[in-house]
Specification:
4 helices, extended
Amino acid sequence: MAEYSWMPSTVLAILSFFLAQVVVSVTGIPIPINQISLEGVAGALVAMSVLMSIYFPIYFKFGYLRSRMVGMILFFACFFFLPMAVALTVHGLGGVDNPVVRTIVATMQRAIGWLQTQADWQIASYLLALGWILMAASVSLSLRFYTKREF
């Protein structure tokens, strides 16, 4: 019986997706569907590698119990910090007089302007290279923390 323990959750998931599809088709809610692009895939891979490259060294330094909250903080920061950074970059700062913040936003605006002149495959390769560099640094740091750890 243990070999079929996954079945109730699978059946429930299939029924949930079917119910959601029925609700969307009956109500006529317009859901835009975009095609998968190279930059989208590269962006998703880089986003995951950035989160992992931040979390893993903290995990190996402090252990599971002390680093549990870090994963949640990183996850929710993606929903609050990134939209705020995009809004600051796109809409400007308004009344903010801090020179450090103004310099950071100006640099981000220049980088976005430069990226808009690049081809899609170039942006995807820049993102993948950034992900590889971050993961290499993370693995190096994590291995250093792991070898110093006492069990």
